[in-house]
Amino acid sequence: MNTQASKSPDPARKFRALAPMALDLVIPIAGFYVLHQLAGFSQVWALTLAGAAGGVWTLIHTIQRRKLDVIGLLVVLEMALTVALLFISDDPRLIAAKPSFYTLLAAVYLLLTCVAGRPLVYVAATPMATDGDPDRTVAYEQAWERSQPFRARERMVTAAFGLAALVDAVLRVIVVYSFDVDKFNESFLLSQLPGIVLIVAVLLFTKSQIKVLHGLVDEVHDQLAAEGVIGPRPDAGQHTASALNEATR
């Protein structure tokens, strides 16, 4: 049995998990300033090309997964909206506010998964939470079925991401349109700050829940092992009561 399932993900895996999110933030900002300030593109075209570069990056990962999931669908909508906006307006503020459209869609989707089906964070975290261990995968699945505190915390974390995306969508529009067009560079940079702050806050909140969630899965793993469904955890002798007590608070 794979004994790595009980261990925390190594730093390299954490970096790989966060890299796409970081690139989604960095590529549009860096791309805009390089294209506009250094290459001399207009604000509209610099925004469009920088946004398209970020979209292509995400689209490549969608193709590699061979699955048009919600992220891939948002990328398709983003690129279609970008093309449409080029024919609708030459106001760079409109294109700068464009991410609010698919951020809002993502927020709605995240919040809907909290009340229908299984939360998106629960589904997305499966590879890291189980590390490919068949026994851990069964325990993780059964934690959703058997543990009300586990379900509640997974919904809470997903709702936190959804609310952060919703607030980011609203604040981006407010910031962009609070400045005149001639101060667009400043407004574009400032419009990124709410999203960065919110993402950091949500990631810190999520990190605070990982130990408790891990303990709840351990509890279910031990129950299943006692029933003879799966093998015992390699660290089954370690004490996890503190995490479980915190979960019931």
Short description:
The protein is mainly α and 249 residues long. It contains eleven helices and no strands. 31% of the residues are buried.
Q: In whole angstroms, how far apart are the ends?
A: 33 Å
Number of strands: 0
Q: Quick check: average pLDDT?
A: 77
Total of DSSP H or I helical runs spanning 4+ residues: 11
Q: Major sheet, described briefly?
A: none
Q: Strand share of the residues?
A: under 5%
- Oligomeric state of the chains present here: single chain
The helix fraction, in percent, is: over 70%
List the helices and strands in order. Answer: HHHHHHHHHHH
Give the overall shape. Answer: elongated
Q: How big is the Rg?
A: 21 Å
Structural class: mainly alpha
Low-confidence stretches: 1-9
